[in-house]
Amino acid sequence: MSALETPAPxxxxxxxxxxxxxxxxxxxxxxxxxxxxxxxxxxxAALVLLWQLAAAQEWIxxxxxxxxSAILSDGWERAVAGELWPDVWxxxxxxxxxxxxxxxxxxxxGLLMGALPLVRAALEPMMDALYVVPKLAxxxxxxxxxxxxxxxxxxxxxxxxFFFVWISTLAAVLAVPEGHRDAGAVFGAGHxxxxxxxxxxxxxxxxLVGARIAAGVAVLVIVASESIAxxxxxxxxxxxxxxxxxxxxxxxxxxxxxxLGVIFSELVRLAGRVLTPWAPRDRGRGQS
Amino acid sequence: xxxxxxxxxxxxxxFPAMAATTLAAALSLTLALTGCSAQRSKTVNTADxxxxxxxxxxxxxxxxxxxxxxxxxxxxxxxxxxxPQRLKKPRELTIATSTLTAExxxxxxxxxxxxxxxxxxxxxxxxxxxTPEALPLLAKGEIDALWAAPEAxxxxxxxxxxxxxxxxxxxxxxxxxxxxxxARVPKGEKPASIRLDGRRIGTLIGxxxxxxxxxxxxxxxxGAEMKSMSFQQxxxxxxxxxxxxxxxxxxxxxxxxxxxxxxxxxxxxLGGQPAGEPLGGALFGPxxxxxxxxxxxxxxxxxxxxxxxxxxxxxxxxxxxxxxxxKVLKQDAKVIKSVPSLRMDWEIRKGTTDRLQxxxxxxxxxxxxxxxxxxLVDRKLYAEAVGHKP
Lengths: 288, 390
Prior knowledge:
The structure holds two protein chains of two kinds.
Chain A: E1 3-5, E2 15-17, H1 20-23, H2 25-56, H3 68-81, H4 85-115, H5 117-131, H6 139-146, H7 150-174, H8 178-186, H9 191-229, H10 234-243, H11 247-275
Antiparallel strand pairs in A: 1-2
Helix pairs in contact in A: 3-11, 4-5, 4-7, 4-9, 4-10, 6-7, 7-9, 8-9, 9-10, 9-11, 10-11
Chain B: H1 4-11, H2 14-35, E1 91-97, H3 106-113, E2 122-128, H4 131-140, E3 145-148, H5 152-159, E4 165-169, E5 171-172, E6 180-184, E7 200-203, H6 212-221, E8 230-233, H7 236-245, E9 250-253, E10 267-272, E11 281-284, H8 286-291, H9 293-310, H10 319-329, H11 333-337, E12 343-344, H12 352-363, H13 373-376, H14 380-386
Parallel strand pairs in B: 1-2, 1-3, 7-8, 7-9
Antiparallel strand pairs in B: 3-11, 4-11, 5-12, 6-9, 6-10
């Protein structure tokens, strides 16, 4: 930021001196990054410390809300003993399988409906109606369709992800400027070339935003689903330990879910950056 | 000249250092304070109370806790006994239960409806609350009693320092009841030869429930152990669908669901809750165990009187009473009548909590050493209610 000096009456002119951003842009940027990074670390750390203090001083009941140190120690013990990984792996498998199915099918249908008005006219009302159905309410239907096992869990994640990707793809394809299509047509682009060189690059950034939102929701929905009808997984771990009044284990599960959600979402963001280098760059958290 | 903007920008420099210092100080303080404090533990005190003989409650009002087996008749007083003893000061009590429609809750519901608690000076409110949610509230005294069972969650809670005790039983099944573990009979096999090793069992309640104890026993009789089984927790209606549809190989079927497979040769009843041994009932927290023991005894007196008056024998023989039950339990009278009467039983058998804890450990749902019975059970309150001196 620059600074203005008040002119002396006899001078009658304004003097603008460069601020640190202009005079020393690199060091100003570094300081800003350090500040943001410090805040990103200090605020959660302070909250965790406050929690630890509250548990230790019995401001909260540590049997109901175990101290972070107890959660960490329990999580570590379970990880070392190998008790945690089967649940993490079970959840991860379901999320990845459901996410892949949901993303691909959502993208294809969104593309089809965006590109072909007749298909859109035929399917949009029905899809809109299905979109608003709470996906967890479909679990009993999937249980009947696929029986017990992995089928209902994967189907539920796929159904959830599908709608996020479908709606963002449809909106993105419809938002491709007519001029882009006209340009493609003028150059004699066929269906595949129109898709490959016009619709895909124009729509992919928005589709990936939908896919990133869906990544978080996929983790959310699998936890709810595993709590109802799964013999393993992080959702099962959380709700089973809650039922057994093993609150430290329950919090270990919650922390694992949070970490899994963040990692998954960040991986999708990273994939977005690699796949769409032309898109406006999302520089991530704490990087204003 | 240094403008405010410039000052703000310059201020960004020392902030990380300041944050780090604050963080380090907070960390040191937290660790210091963590080291010098511990969770308080209140003591439970139901000892040293005067026990007077109670009219109508003679020898049959107490059975030796060590006696087990189907031939044991549950303790009983005469109809209307023990007589109410109104508290000097009326007391409001909140009792949590995970359901109000199950038949084992009927004595509570009938006691409220017939004013048996009112006669004791108690204003009882029943609240539906799952056990894991109710436990901390019970330990804090925000609810006074929990109508549940010494499940793994309760054992874990007491192990963690909660002052909670199992103070009265609820029921054991009638000998003719077939509520329990059912299995599909493979072609050419007989029920006795069914092997359960590695099979999948569907249950409404998980491995931390008291049914782990009979299940542990039954599974062992069929060549398996709890850890080798796969448990699938399902909704009440889904257990039977999964069982009938082949989704699970065996299922724990409750009243009256087992009636749907009873008599069908494709399914076999392998066993249920042990006869004559209640596995659930009343759990008290500090508010009735130590703060106001009189109210705790009064509550059990009302409960025991209700059993003696309305549930002493085969209570389903009386059609008007079945209609009343149907009304309070919000169930169809035909459904209630379709299964035999429960044997209501306020007593707690010796060693039940040891056997329960063994099954929890076998199922891997509790950790550490088993708690001694006196940390989990207190029989003094119901003993006082029926005038039994140990």
